[in-house]
Amino acid sequence: MDREESAAIRDDLEYQLEADPNDANEEVRSLEAESVPNTTTRVTTQPTGEAAQLMIPVLGKSATDLTDTFTDDRGGGTRLHEAMDIMAPEGTSVVAAAPGTLERIFLSDAGGNTLYIRSEDRETIYYYAHLAEYAQGLTEGMTIRRGQRLGTVGSTGNADPAAPHLHFAMLRTQARSEWWEPATAVNPFPLLTRR
Ligand SMILES: [Zn+2]
Fold this sequence. Notes:
By secondary structure, the chain is of the alpha+beta class. A hairpin with a 4-residue loop joins strand 1 and strand 2. Helix 1 crosses helix 4. The longest helix is centred in the first third of the chain and has 17 residues. The two termini are 27 Å apart. It comes from Aurantiacibacter arachoides.
């Protein structure tokens, strides 16, 4: 991470603190405690840093374009969606919401063309589904940077061809768990919109 990027993340974090009066005092204190060189890494790995680090994974979309679909019914009411659908024309670029390691490139019946990208601490999996195409050169095990192009929005798997979208999920897991093991979904909406 270069200096400019570090500064940008710090700016984002401060913006978020202003917007969240409940945590402000606590966080300002911790920021002050860390206002010595070489502490940026600690700031960005704190939970509040995650929102600052995430970007909307469909190119050209802004926070006001997003809808919270986390608790929508799926499977005829048998389960919750537990993800976010970002509607976009087929072919729109899908980009990495967060950095990590590309753990699995997987074609599934429901998800179609999917990608599993794992955070550096291995405790979060970012899941991208229904892609029309993968970006060229993606291979399992490669390092993915935030904003890297992953492919294009589509409707592969069980998505409605008339409503192409990116299905994006964030799953909390244990570092030693495999990508396919049960994990706890968290709602990306407040993190991507900072609400
Ligand atoms: Zn979905």
